[in-house]
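re: ur question from earlier - yeah i can do the single chain one, its not a big deal. heres the input i used so u can compare w yours
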Amino acid sequence: MSHAANPFAERGTTNEIETGSVFMPAFDANGLIACITVDHQTSDVLMFAWMNAEALAATLKTGEVHYWSRSRQELWHKGATSGQVQTVVDIRTDCDQDALLIRVRAGGDGGACHVGYRSCFYRQVGQSEEAETVQLTFAAS
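and the output i got, formated as tokens:
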């Protein structure tokens, strides 16, 4: 992971974190924070990914979403190769600042999934009495 300095405020008191106006993201033991990305017009969930401090800082600086690829162990500018650049509309954090919700305008074909679907959440989990294992079905888009 990058060892760039973390430009964000140190964690404060519970009251400062939950009701204050200073952004104090809680990165986990691996230096990551969860990020859910949604389409700003439809509120459809497009994807879930991780950010480190470098990815979050790059996102804030450029206005385009950057993630941390755990599999490649590198900064990932979403859409740099696919054309599905995600332009930030707004970034929100939850009450304890350990998760992010980013609303975006998705470029390219408006998709987000690397296997060709608009959303990475294209399958539905279900259980039937006939099946011995939990099954996946393709969800309606």
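The mean pLDDT is 92. not sure if urs matches, ping me
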